[in-house]
Design brief:
The chain is 38% helix and 16% strand. The strands form 2 sheets. The chain has a 9-stranded mixed beta sheet with strand order 1-4-5-3-2-6-7-8-9, with helices on both faces. The chain starts with 8 loop residues before the first strand and ends with a helix. The protein is α/β, with parallel strands linked by helices. The radius of gyration is 22 Å and the shape is globular. It is built from 16 helices and 15 strands.
Length: 443
């Protein structure tokens, strides 16, 4: 089943979890906190991205293990009910804190209100621990840890210091408030989960995290949705045929969609004049600080300046099953990111047997092996040189495709859930002498 197409049903707060019984020790119910974005939103635009995929995928696999999951997020407007069943055993609670339509950059001033809504929510009385996602959720979780006695596990997904050290042109630096909050969350959390060894190193060296509190747990990929065993020809013809380069991600400077357009132009000097068109398909929507410099109108203007406007197509974000068709249609996926904590797009593409040319940053070197090529820096000429062999040499592409599938098969959301549960179990074992939640609240 597609994580993003899960049935959405109204749910009374605090009840109705259809979790299958489990004989495993550990928490019966946990709370995931995602202040700034709901897992029910379509990834690829606005503030919704890989973290949204992560939240719902992890929650569903935890529920498969017999752990009920409550996800607490901010009500950003719309007509969704306060609580929604997103999958069997997974309920998303929308907390009404702050005005609708507020920008992500302005949410920090409403975190106290979010905490108060969380603390008063009936479901919180039932969870064994909180798992914060992104720094704002960690700030709220830190308050809950101090005032409610709930253990806190934290996943950052991105770190402010890493982003500021690798700013793309047109991007905006993360504020000092975020950097200070991340330091305090790292110091106070019972455990921090990092998606790749690169982030483990940053947490220890630049944030002073104690070695025993940082746990490496890689995200996964839905190997039932992202597969290679489907006819590529029809998918390719639907995109117009020719050689196809694919970019998938939010349209913000951090992700480098402008570099992808420039790479297409640079490829003209490397490819034969054989009448076969080379196309770039961009899948994503505007997002984040500085997005105006790389939104579709700006990218169209850039493509026109470079003389490739007729070979660039812009598609809206789409559900996973439709996205998988695009991966399979492409000859190669490009990821010219300035930073990436992990790189779910690279893993999804490889699961579909599509080679990836990606920046040698963050977690991408741990994901892209023989199934692609890593590029240092963001020079379009370097990306074009790395992309060209996958477009021109069928043997090179076939070898990379086979390696890509082997890489992707090492990852699954079930494995992610099992390793996350081990972190939860360790945290609860360490806190076993604290007493029940009701006693902690009465303290």
């Amino acid at each position: 089943m597609d994580d993003r197409n899960a049935a959405v049903r109204p749910q009374r707060p605090g009840g109705g979890h259809g979790v299958r019984p489990s004989d495993r020790a550990g928490p019966a119910r946990v709370g995931l906190v995602s202040v700034h974005t709901s897992p029910l939103e379509q990834p690829g635009t606005g503030d919704a991205g890989g973290m949204n995929v992560y939240l719902l995928s992890l929650a569903r696999r935890l529920a498969d293990r017999g752990v009920a999951v409550d996800i607490f997020t901010r009500a950003g407007g719309g007509d969704l009910p306060p609580s929604v069943v997103a999958a069997d055993g997974v309920t998303v609670h929308h907390l009404a804190t702050g005005p609708a339509g507020i920008a992500k950059a302005d949410l920090a001033s409403h975190l106290c209100a979010f905490y108060l809504g969380l603390a008063a929510h009936p479901a919180v009385a039932e969870v064994a621990l909180l798992h914060g996602h992104y720094w704002m959720s960690g700030w709220v979780g830190r308050l809950a840890r101090r005032r409610l006695g709930l253990p806190l596990v934290q996943s950052f997904h991105t770190l402010g210091r890493v982003k500021n050290a690798t700013l793309a042109p047109g991007d905006v630096a993360e504020p000092a408030l975020r950097l200070a909050a991340e330091e305090r969350i790292v110091a106070d959390a019972d455990a921090v989960i990092a998606p790749a060894a690169s982030e483990v190193a940053v947490l220890r060296e630049r944030y002073g995290a104690a070695a025993g509190r940082v746990h490496l747990v890689a995200p996964g990929v839905d190997l039932e949705v992202f597969t290679a065993d489907t006819d590529r020809h029809s998918a390719r013809q639907a995109l117009g045929g020719g050689r196809i380069v694919l970019f998938v991600g939010r349209l913000q400077p951090l992700k480098g969609p402008d570099v992808a357009v420039r790479t297409l132009a640079a490829l003209d000097a490397l490819l034969p004049d054989d009448g076969v068109p080379t196309r770039l398909v961009v899948v994503g929507g505007p997002s984040g600080n500085g997005a105006g410099s790389v939104d579709p109108p700006a990218l169209r203007r850039l493509a026109a300046q470079l003389g490739v406007a007729d070979r660039v197509a812009f598609l809206a974000p789409r559900p996973q099953r439709e996205l998988a068709l695009l991966y399979r249609a492409a000859d190669v996926v490009v990821m010219p990111s300035a930073s990436e904590s992990f790189g779910l797009v690279a893993l999804e593409a490889q699961a579909c047997a599509t080679p990836v040319v990606a920046a040698a940053v963050g977690g991408l070197p741990s994901v892209v092996g023989d199934g692609g090529t890593l590029v240092a820096g963001r020079d379009p000429a370097a990306y074009a040189a790395a992309v060209a062999p996958y477009l021109l040499d069928a043997r090179v592409r076939a070898a990379a495709s086979a390696a890509a599938v082997r890489t992707a098969r090492r990852y699954s959301w079930r494995r992610t859930a099992d390793e996350t549960l081990r972190v939860y179990d360790a945290v609860l074992a360490d806190r076993a002498d604290v007493g029940p939640l009701s006693a902690r609240r009465g303290a």
